[in-house]
Design a protein that fits this description.
Largest sheet: 5 strands, antiparallel
Shape: flat
Oligomer: single chain
Helix content: 55-70%
Radius of gyration: 49 Å
Strand content: 15-25%
Number of helices: 24
Structural class: alpha+beta
């Protein structure tokens, strides 16, 4: 019967039977797919969305409502901010819970929902109480509430929400198993129907073999289409943006595209005459030869190479190498010069980040999940007292007070889980001192491992300040009024000054009465008022550095001040507390410093001191003009960078100098004097100072030599010593003369003393008077002789 059909008719019949089979299989599959789709819709609408809604309810209770009271108590949140977050969380919870109850509930689920509803009512009642406390800002009631508040994980509503989420997972698993059963049943039936269809189709195929010629003609026609596709492929290859080429098993080019010619600078004809080795950097080939097709069986290779352009320029490329079945190698090359530069920039940025990290005011650390320190700044070493080497062998718990280890562990787990955590803990120093710190942490991926990046701020002063503020409001007012730094309190609603201390009165030149009630706009330059108004509208949570601005004093003079602001609630009113620092003189000094630095090189080259910098091998790295003149004059050598001292230093002096440098390179400083005899018989003296050069880690990098001429000072010291010797001789002569003359003077004085007694007994005794006259003349002669002798010694 089939013989009555033409070949095309048989093909149409085969296609019809195949189409009917496919349609039947499709309809049967669609029916089962509808069932699976309905189950999937139920799984998503009644389970997945429910689980998401329950997760939102549970998350808001754990992360927002339950911790809010504690956060307000710990001053992490203000009362107003906490109230807003509480109301927002209540809205999210009520919306999700209401939407969840509208979904299909199983009997078991319905029973658990009633239990959860009761727990939610209790939680809502507690939330309303908390909202009332936050509205009244009652700190004592808040503390009582915090003590009664359950932990987040143990709250009844959280437990019930978790049970409901687990129930959703069990029901979803049942739906999944139903879908799986339908799939397995449908698969078996499909296989049977497909086999039946194949038997029918194969039977018909036997009858159309006679018409193979027609099929061959169709095949030949298809070949033409393939050739056309190959031409399109060649065109695509030729216009590809990446350089593409083929090489044979010996590495000779067999095909290159336009981008390859542009990359290397060769023409297509020139490249087809070359071997691949000719475009690779010869220096790289010495250590890393080219791998050809026979060395890459059935695998691809991606690596980096250095190519050489026709003009000799060397550049970096990334090549993707694949071997074909005919022993030809297909290569895609991409210029990665810009990427290499970017990698170098990243490396330089990493080096810069080290400097930035060490400039951070607080403690910075990077640790892995095992608690081992990976990176830290200098402040961690300063605070703990440990050296960098010691910190490498420590873990975080080694520097935390034992009583705070568990608290910090919980905070770290929360950071890894939620993305951020903050906790207070006492840091234990090397000598056992405990310092309270506010620690924060966030998880990051560093060097392919999960780590925690953290910062720490010393809060000892804050804790003491808070305690003092709680004890006495008067102390706070005294701190404000008597603070040496100028401070203002500015109302945020109308920008009026409501408080000013004595320091700010002195700074601006106004009296306190003039400042109070004045708008802060009057202290700003007209052209900057709008900008400052925008800054004033922002909320300063914590201290906010507003930078340096220009302000106007009462005498209309303009000064530069540095502002640090903090928004607080003062007497129930939003107030901005501003700490003001006059930096006018500092800015002038910085400008002067910049000018001084610009002249530093000139100063070095005009100073009378010779400076030279040497590395650890005593090779010259830098020197000034005075050092060049010294080496030329004393050693008859023209110095240059890289010179070694041993090449021109006098042999007789070098051993002693080496001993000095050993001491210096251990961290000490050496000072000494040395002389150099000259050809004219004179001597030149030099004062030499040797001191080590170190980096921030106190590693010794080299040695600095400072040398200057002290010949005049040494000559002056020699002349001073000679003069001192002469004076000492005169002093000794005077001592001898005074000793001798004292004996000569005592004789007439003794006689005069005795004669005066006799004369008192008989004033008219002329003989006694004659003796007195004689002794007086003798004493006068002795004194005159002493005067002559003194003149003689002085003149000599």
């Amino acid at each position: 019967m089939l013989n009555k059909f033409t070949t095309s008719g048989k093909l149409y019949l085969l296609l019809s039977i195949t189409a009917v089979s496919l349609i039947g299989l499709g309809l049967y599959g669609i029916n089962d797919l509808k069932k699976m789709s309905e189950n999937t819709r139920t799984l998503y609408a009644d389970r997945v969305l429910c689980m998401q809604q329950l997760a939102n309810v549970r998350f808001e209770y754990i992360s927002e409502i339950l911790p809010i009271a504690l956060n307000v108590k710990n001053h992490i949140l203000t009362f107003s901010e906490a109230k807003k977050r509480l109301e927002k969380a209540q809205q999210i919870i009520n919306t999700n819970w209401r939407n969840y109850k509208l979904t299909y509930l199983t009997p078991e689920e319905n029973r658990l929902v009633h239990q959860t509803e009761a727990a939610k009512n209790q939680a809502d009642e507690a939330s309303e109480n908390l909202r009332s406390i936050l509205a009244t800002q009652d700190t004592l009631t808040l503390n009582t509430f915090v003590q009664k508040e359950p932990l987040p994980d143990s709250a009844p509503i959280v437990i019930k929400a978790t049970q409901l989420m687990e129930l959703q997972a069990r029901i979803a698993k049942q739906i999944f198993n139903n879908n799986k059963a339908i799939y397995q049943s449908t698969s078996r039936k499909f296989i049977f129907l497909i086999c039946l269809s194949l038997v029918i189709a194969l039977s018909l195929s036997l009858y159309i073999i006679r018409n193979i010629k027609g099929l061959v003609k169709d095949k030949l026609k298809s070949s033409g289409i393939i050739k056309e596709s190959e031409e399109k492929y060649r065109s695509l290859l030729e216009h590809a943006s990446d350089a593409i080429y083929l090489v044979d098993r010996r590495g000779n080019f067999t095909q290159v595209n336009k981008s390859m010619c542009e990359m290397t600078g060769y023409t297509r004809e020139e490249l087809l005459q070359l071997n691949a080795d000719k475009i690779v950097d010869p220096e790289q080939l010495k250590t890393d030869p080219v791998v050809h097709a026979q060395d890459l069986p059935n695998r691809s290779l991606i690596r980096e190479r250095r190519f050489v352009r026709k003009d000799g320029k060397i550049f970096d490329v990334e090549i993707n190498v694949k071997m074909f079945a005919d022993n030809k190698t297909f290569v895609i090359a991409r210029d990665i010069t810009d990427r290499k530069r970017a990698e170098e920039l990243i490396l330089r940025e990493k080096t810069l980040s080290d400097a930035i990290i060490n400039s951070l005011p607080g403690v910075f650390y990077l640790r892995n999940e095992h608690g081992k320190f990976l990176r830290w700044n200098r402040n961690l070493e300063i605070v703990t007292g440990y050296t960098a080497t010691e910190i490498e062998s420590l873990i975080v718990r080694d520097v935390i007070a034992p009583e705070d280890v568990e608290t910090l562990k919980i905070a770290a787990e929360k950071a890894f889980k939620d993305g951020y955590a903050m906790s207070e803990a006492k840091v234990r120093t090397k000598n056992g001192t405990k310092i309270p710190f506010l620690l924060t942490g966030s998880p990051i991926i560093y060097e392919n491992q999960l780590c925690l990046i953290g910062t720490g701020i010393d809060i000892l002063s804050r804790i003491k300040a808070e305690e003092e503020l709680r004890l006495s409001e008067q102390k706070y007012k005294l701190l404000f009024e008597r603070n040496p730094s100028p401070m203002l309190m500015i109302a945020k609603d109308n920008m009026s000054i409501i408080a000013a201390n004595e320091a700010v009165v002195r700074l601006y030149g106004y009296t306190k009465d003039e400042l109070l009630g004045m708008s802060v706009e009057e202290l700003r330059l007209t052209e900057n008022v709008e900008q400052h108004l925008e800054i004033f509208k922002t909320e300063a949570i914590g201290s906010m550095d507003l930078g340096v601005i220009r302000v106007i004093r009462k005498d209309r003079s303009i000064i530069f001040v540095h502002l640090v602001a903090h928004d607080i609630i003062f007497e129930g009113r939003p107030v901005r507390l501003s700490l003001i620092t006059d930096v006018t003189e500092r800015l002038k000094a910085e400008e002067s410093l910049k000018k001084s630095e610009a002249n530093l090189q000139t100063i070095l080259n005009t100073t009378d001191t010779a400076y030279a910098l040497f590395d650890l091998e005593l090779s010259a790295q830098a020197f000034n003009q005075k050092a060049i003149e010294f080496v030329k004059h004393e050693y008859y050598h023209s110095p240059k960078k890289g010179d070694r001292l041993s090449d021109f230093f006098p042999v007789d002096r070098f051993p002693q100098f080496v001993n000095f440098t050993r001491v210096v390179l251990k961290g000490d400083t050496i000072n000494y004097e040395i002389n150099y005899p000259q050809a004219d018989g004179s001597i030149i003296w030099y004062y030499v100072s040797l001191f080590p050069i170190t980096n921030n880690n106190k590693e010794i990098l080299g040695m600095m030599m400072a040398l200057y001429d002290i010949t005049e000072r040494k000559n002056a010291e020699h002349e001073l010593k000679s003069a001192y010797d002469r004076i000492q001789g005169h002093v000794n002569s005077i001592k001898d003369m005074a000793w001798k003359q004292s004996h000569l003077i005592r004789s007439p004085l003794a006689n005069l003393k005795g004669l005066s007694v006799l004369l008192n007994q008989d004033p008219s005794d002329t003989e006694v008077l004659a003796f007195i006259q004689n002794e007086l003349e003798r004493m006068d002669a002795i004194i005159m002789e002493m005067a002559d002798l003194s003149d003689h010694n002085i003149n000599n």
